[in-house]
Amino acid sequence: MKILSARQIREADAYTIAHEPVDSLRLMERAAAACAQWLMDTYRGTARPFYIFCGPGNNGGDGLVIARLLADKGFNVQAWLVAKGTPSPDNLANQARVPFLQTIHEPGEFPPMETPGVIVDALFGTGLNRPLEGWTAAIIHQINGQRGRHDIVSIDMPSGLMADKSTKGNPCIHARYTLTFEYWKLALLLPENGEFAGETVLVPIGLHPAYTAAVQTEYHLTDMEMIRTIYRPRDPFAHKGTYGHALLVAGSYGKMGAAVLSAKAVMRAGAGLLTVHVPGCGYEIMQTAFPEAMCETEEQATFSAHFDEPFRLRRAPEYDVIGIGPGTGTEPATAKALERLLGLWQGPMVLDADALNILSKWPSLLQLLPKHCILTPHPKEFERLFGATGNHFERLELLRSKAAELEQYILLKGRFTAMACPDGSVFFNPTGNPGMATAGSGDVLTGILTGLLAQGYAPKAALILGTWLHGKAGDLAAAVSPEAMIASDIIGHLANAYAEIQQ
Ligand SMILES: NC(=O)C1=CN([C@@H]2O[C@H](COP(=O)(O)OP(=O)(O)OC[C@H]3O[C@@H](n4cnc5c(N)ncnc54)[C@H](O)[C@@H]3O)[C@@H](O)[C@H]2O)[C@@H](O)CC1
Ligand SMILES: [K+]
């Protein structure tokens, strides 16, 4: 699914009006009717009144239509026009159709709203072009002050948030739900705005599909259609060699769990063969915990500078992919080993955890990476690798520019994990939940990505599919209890995540 900028959303709106028998007033009616329906379905039977705050533009126009539609259905509705500036023509036309509309001219006129109800925030949407200040900011603070007593539902955007620019630190509605029209907006996907949007619900309003099909965007949200296009069913004539031989370099004294979790995920993702390279202290652990993997070792608790000797990496062509990093530690000897490895290997590769920490400590190693590896930092690892930024839009831009400059795929973990490709595109992943913020979850992702690359998926396909599978398996695991789930449960649900694609 493409993520459009505020300008492109306006164009999609105009294109629909030009190419369909619908004028702007009808389109507003359609969008507002979809919201009114959601509000009725969600709050029917609760006897909660609706308190609707309408701004001067078309977002306010949506609020006016919602007020009328809910009142027509017999709901208890109060609506206020927060009057500042000239109203848009469609807003004005709808004001006349809400006889019970009141006006707030200054913050002192903020209504009491005694009965617990639902505040509908239709003050500003994608038309916001600068931070809110003065008395509009004061109204936002007053609405936020009501959060304990009322549910707040924002229409299209939480008022105060700009669709594709940072509004960090500026006044903004804290919604429980955001009913956003037709497309995800970039701002709704970035963690710094999570507290404002609450739960985002996508509301289709029937914009013309031809515009979306043709428009060029850098940002995308992974959806099932994309996943089904990427996924390749197994060949009935397959043997284990068909699905590749992965090498996983992982573990150290006290951190063999990371290696075991990663190894299991490689195989559960579908790799044909796996060799795990661990320090000597981990040999028995690995062979016992996961007999499906072959295991080779070194004497030391960490990896030696002579990595390639017992390791016989000169036989590298027998591997299809190398995954490296979970639990390896960042000893100088291990860093040397990674350097040697990079001198010998130019194939597909996944670098995670301590492999990334080594790259941060010795940044010159970044230049030795084969092109089109997958790097999977969490925000702290990303900051150590590439530096701090002032807000999450800047961080996204840094992610994009580093992926292009280094010609690597870089995955930045988060609620909507952002995956930047060397061609400048960024894919956001929708699956996953807070239950996955648990030790070992990242090691499982490394394993899944390594397992997909082993099977011959191209890096971009492996990245999008693997991250989706990881989140979906996590969602299935969290369905029982997000608190009680552990990383092994994600592996345990990978089969069910695959099954969802095949349905
Ligand atoms: N995209 C679409 O296809 C559709 C959009 N609709 C609605 O239209 C909205 C966009 O409408 P508009 O473009 O009229 O914009 P908005 O209603 O979001 O806001 C524009 C108004 O706010 C004022 N404004 C902007 N920044 C301000 C600031 N910092 N302080 C005070 N005032 C400020 C402008 O002067 C203007 O009056 C969407 O969010 C959505 O709710 C729907 O009505 C129907 C279909
Ligand atoms: K709004």
Automatic annotation (TrEMBL):
In the C-terminal section; belongs to the NnrD/CARKD family. Belongs to the NnrE/AIBP family. HAMAP family: NADHX_dehydratase, NADHX_epimerase. This is Bifunctional NAD(P)H-hydrate repair enzyme. NCBIfam families: yjeF_cterm, yjeF_nterm. The keyword ATP-binding applies. Homotetramer. Binds 1 potassium ion per subunit. InterPro entries: Carbohydrate_kinase_pred_CS (IPR017953), CARKD (IPR000631), Nnr (IPR030677), Ribokinase-like (IPR029056), YjeF_N_dom (IPR004443), YjeF_N_dom_sf (IPR036652). Residues 223-501 form the YjeF C-terminal domain. It catalyses: (6S)-NADHX + ADP = AMP + phosphate + NADH + H(+); (6R)-NADHX = (6S)-NADHX; (6R)-NADPHX = (6S)-NADPHX; (6S)-NADPHX + ADP = AMP + phosphate + NADPH + H(+). Catalyzes the dehydration of the S-form of NAD(P)HX at the expense of ADP, which is converted to AMP. Together with NAD(P)HX epimerase, which catalyzes the epimerization of the S- and R-forms, the enzyme allows the repair of both epimers of NAD(P)HX, a damaged form of NAD(P)H that is a result of enzymatic or heat-dependent hydration. Bifunctional enzyme that catalyzes the epimerization of the S- and R-forms of NAD(P)HX and the dehydration of the S-form of NAD(P)HX at the expense of ADP, which is converted to AMP. This allows the repair of both epimers of NAD(P)HX, a damaged form of NAD(P)H that is a result of enzymatic or heat-dependent hydration. Coiled coil: none annotated. Its EC number is 4.2.1.136, 5.1.99.6. Its cofactor is Mg(2+); K(+). AMP binds at residues 413-417, 442. Residues 9-213 form the YjeF N-terminal domain. Keywords: ATP-binding, Isomerase, Lyase, Metal-binding, Multifunctional enzyme, NAD, NADP, Nucleotide-binding, Potassium.
